[in-house]
Amino acid sequence: MLSTLAIANYRSLRSITLPLGRLNLITGANGSGKSNLYRALRLLAETAQGNVVSALAREGGLRTTLWAGPEHISPRMQRGDVPIQGGPRHESLALKLGFAADDFGYAIDFGFPKPSSQSAFSLDPEIKSEAIWAGPFLRLPSVLVDRRGAMARTRDGRNWRIVAEHLNAFESIFTQLADPERASEVLSLRESIRAWRFYDHFRSDVDAPARWAQLGTRTPVLSHDGRDLAAAWQTIREIGDVGSLDAAVQDAFPGAEVAITVDEGRFGLLFSQPGLLRSLSTAELSDGTLRYLLWIAALHTPRPPPLMVLNEPETSLHPDLLPALARLIVQAAKRSQVWVVSHAPRLIEALESVPDCNVIRLEKDFSQTQIVGQRMLDEPAWHWPER
Ligand SMILES: Nc1ncnc2c1ncn2[C@@H]1O[C@H](COP(=O)(O)OP(=O)(O)OP(=O)(O)O)[C@@H](O)[C@H]1O
Ligand SMILES: [Mg+2]
Q1: Is residue 63 part of a domain?
Q2: Same domain, yes or no, for 292 and 167?
Q3: What residue's CA is closest to ligand 1, atom 28?
Q4: Is residue 28 part of a domain?
Q5: How far is it, in rounded angstroms, from Cα 105 to Cα 163?
Q6: Which of 12, 229, 251, 291 could pair with 369 as two cysteines, CB 3.0-4.6 Å apart?
């Protein structure tokens, strides 16, 4: 389970350290930084997939994603005595992402290449440093893997062992060092990050993959786009919690039933509801019904991921369905750590009333995302690796 997430200089997240619980609800007004937080977590996940530099490039590169404000906003600027202005920099421009979990913590620091770089990719971000440590925040005695530029070393008893001297600046240690011989922590952390699941706006248009029968194999985890809905549903029926699956359908759609059809290996889903003479296929379902079935399947996975992130799950659901969705989410949070980004009042209200729900309300102050009510002392301890 992640206990802390820290981000610096990523869009409106100039410097933020969040304490995390088992069930986390992120809310706030439009533009407060909810999606930025979601994207930052997703970028962190991309490091383990080996795609973080290209993911940053797709977002417009480091220049676009870096915090666009000054390094510090002084009290005089805040009072409006002087205009908001840059001034000389004390620290190098750096986009930093990190988290601490029960077992290990990890942080990565991106910067610009040296201006002398002869490469045609001179705008690509470079990984300046990375670290893996044991414990709630980085401290020198607890560092296990320390990467600075092209060099990486691991802890060997009381000494350091240099395990690489020619790392590529555009690839993380998860790509270059994940072998059990040199750095077993890298490998185990990479595997756990790879299991994180992100669900972000399931498609429900006529061409949406979830609307059409698909070749099916056993599917313990619903894919990000929900294309394997019927196979995932059938997998839950065979190896998951069928009672809870059926109860979730009844909770949202009283009297309705879901059936799975298999035709030459293609799996389809039929939905029967009271008052109709025949069942409806997924192609005929309303957007909201289809999306809700996708949530039921995602949240009943027989192989719960360590972390599940749901971005605005309320999309196209009627407010009356949101309390049922909240119950589904609370159930899932018993098996995975869950993040919900939402601004639907009924969903927020239902989740807020759950005793150990960690509610993080974001607001913007001088364009910087901050946590409402977080004072310096509430902020979890955090240190970034040095360059
Ligand atoms: N490079 C940047 N530097 C500083 N701020 C930025 C940068 N890029 C985007 N922003 C700010 O981030 C804010 C958008 O945040 P985000 O998309 O996370 O909002 P949101 O909370 O998801 O809002 P909504 O509810 O509308 O989806 C914008 O208001 C914009 O001002
Ligand atoms: Mg948003």
Answers
A1: yes
A2: no
A3: 31
A4: no
A5: 20
A6: 12
